[in-house]
Each structure stands twice: as structure tokens, then as C-alpha cells.
Amino acid sequence: MADGRSVDQTNRLKETIGKDIFLQTGTPIHPMSPLTKLIWMKETGYQPYINAAKFISIKEYLLLKWFGTYIVDYAVASASGLFNIHTFQWEDTALAAAGISSDQLSKPVPSTEICQGLEVELADKLNLPQDIPFVIGSSDGPLANLGIGAINPGDVALTIGTSGAIRQMASKPETDELQEIFCYGVTENLWIMGGPTNNGGIVFQWLKDVLGEKEVEQALANGTSAYDLLTNHAKGVKPGAEGLLFLPFLNGERAPYWDANARGSFIGLTLSHKKEHMIRAGLEGVIFSMYSIGQALERLAGEPTQIFASGGFARSPLWLQIVADMFGQDVHVPVSHQSSAWGAAWFGLYALGEVPSLSAIKEHIPMSSTIVPNANHHALYQELYQTYSELYFSLKPHFQTLAAFQRGSSVK
């Protein structure tokens, strides 16, 4: 996913027909998009591309091997940048740009599509009945929203694992010329809007690797967690890290900037700042990034009425409190952090007619806790966000220069 070799192709596409493709597909033009990767393959004469009969995902490959059919659910198709979210068909303009035909792609189907009829040998290996139904389901994002109960208007799901995303379901597709957020099809009458960040838990991992050598040793000796030890340091620092901000773009960035050249930065360092301030600023920087995506999402989807948190970060009380304080809203946390698995199971039940609706899952999700915001902290974060929101644009030309220098250095 983090392959950035198609940067040049991405930039050229943005300057020509990229906006038109986005308005039809809902997939922002970015080097991580399969569309731009295919254009790179075409232009560089990549041999596997030339030889390929089909272009499919791992999920499609498994379905092919198990059931002998080329099918893909709407959400996975949407994420390719090749799928029209208004017609639910492959988008001709995108196909032409990629240099492929619809015959080289799978048939798009709803998330409720059922496959059935395993071969006897495979059924025996899996220890499953040969006629067991397989519901095709959806991609990770829509499943996470469903599994956490964020399916009605105003319900926002905030997920942070290695990367992160903030998403909201919608009853109609919404895109605009700013191209800040994605809009993917899920079913014939349900779409998901939102934005992903490349930099979620991976930022905390980087902080641990760079600043946490002592804590890693302590954790190994005591059987504790280095992340918990680092979080305890950050707890002792006031919100705002005494004016230290961190742009968490360690792996480039997707929403809302869609800039593979974006780079991480500490802004405001002084002699009074210590390791604990940098850790706190790092954790806050990830949420500032999520908040900026939330602002773009709110423009199209409306103001959030409920925020639900899932993913590995939801195990951190400090990180959850930062979310509540920054967004100024209660944050609802489920018992299970595996919301995508809950969503997948419910899609299966819905497709098989075992439950009345997708939204009925709300009555069956055990919730763990609700994190309440601190009004004073919210006001402080709002003040700092004014500066944070301007930093990317101020530094963008320098990010481009440094990214080009870094790519040149890696070649040498």
C-alpha cells in the first residue's frame, strides 16, 4: 500500500482528468490507489502487467479458487479508483487511463452476494459442509462502521490501528471538487464517506523505537508494556504539550491532503521540552490529523452526533481522552475492539435473512465505556488547531523539496 512509485503519474492525472475520475469513482487520486499503480505499470512496461489476464485482490483470488467465479463487492471495487459509485459499474475513463478493460476485472456485486458449493476436497480440508453459504461481505472500513454501530446519519466511527480512518455512512453518494475525502459504495442504497490517515499507531511505534529504549528494557525486565510506560510519561504533561505540535506525516499522508511527499515535523521545540512532551505531542498529532479529516467529512456528511472508537488505540485511556477533548464530544467505546469482525458477522446474518436490517446491530453491540470531554481542554485544542491546520500548507513546498532529496539519496 505504501508504494509511492506512481507519484509522477498521480501528479499528471491530477492536472488532467483526475478530478473528473474522482467525481465518478469517489476515490481520491493518490499514489496508493490501484488506479495510479496500474498507470505506472502501463507506462513503465511492467512485465506482470503486460502478461496479466485479470487484475484482482486477494479476496477475489480466494473466491475464484473456492467457487470458480470472478466477483468483487462494491466497497473493494470502489477502493480501486476504477469503479463508478453512481452506476455501480466499472468507470470507462479510469479504465482507459489504466490501459485495461472491464473484462480484466471481476463482476461487481452487492455485499450480500452469497457463494455456495465448495468442492468436496476443499470442504473436507476446511472441515465445513459442502453447501455452507459464504456471504461476500465488504471491506474493512464499512465493516468496522457496521460492527461498532456507526451506521445512521451523524454516527461517526474513528478507528486507529497502524494507520487510521474516520468514516460516516450515507444514503447517497457525495463528492466535491476539493477531493479531500473518499466515498465508496457498500450496497445499492448505502455508501461510506470518510478519510484515511497513513499515520496512526505507527507514530507511537516510531516514538517507542526512537525515544523509548529505556522503557523497552524496563518492559522486557518486568513483563510490562513499553507503550504503557511511555503513556505514563505523557500523562504527566498538560494537554497541548506546552505548545509543542507534531505533524504526524511519517509515511506521507492521505486524507485530507493526499500528499505522498508530506513529512513529519515537530514544531515549537524549546529547551524546556523533554521526552514526555514529544510523546504527548505525538499522540495529540495523530488526533489532530484525524480531527482535520473529520472537518472535511463534516462539510459533506454533516455534523457528527455520536463518535464511536475502535482499533488498537481504544485500549489507551489517554488517547481516548485526547479524542473526546479535541472533538468536544462523548466517545463511545465497545467491549470488543474487533469491530470489523462484528460487522462481517452481521452482514452474513443480514444476507441470510437472520436479522431484519443492518442498523439493528446497534441493539447487539456490548459497549464498554463512554469518555466525556473536558471543556477547558477542548478550548485549548481548538486554539492550537488553528495553528496546526495552517502548518501543512506553510510547509508543503519544503516537504516536496525534502521528499525529492530523500528519493535522490536513496537511489545513490
Automatic annotation (TrEMBL):
Write down a Pfam family by its short name: FGGY_C
Keyword Kinase on this protein? yes
The record ties this protein, via CDD domains, to: ASKHA_NBD_FGGY_GntK (cd07770)
Protein name per Swiss-Prot or TrEMBL: Gluconokinase
Residue span, Carbohydrate kinase FGGY C-terminal domain: 157-351
Per UniProt, residues of the Carbohydrate kinase FGGY N-terminal domain are: 3-147
Q: Please report which protein family the annotation says this sequence is part of.
A: Belongs to the FGGY kinase family.
Which Gene Ontology terms describe the biological processes this protein takes part in? carbohydrate metabolic process
Which UniProt keyword terms apply here? Answer: Kinase, Transferase
Q: Which domain of life is it from?
A: Bacteria
Concerning SUPFAM superfamilies, the annotation shows: Actin-like ATPase domain
- GO MF terms on file? kinase activity
The organism encoding this protein is Halalkalibacter wakoensis JCM 9140
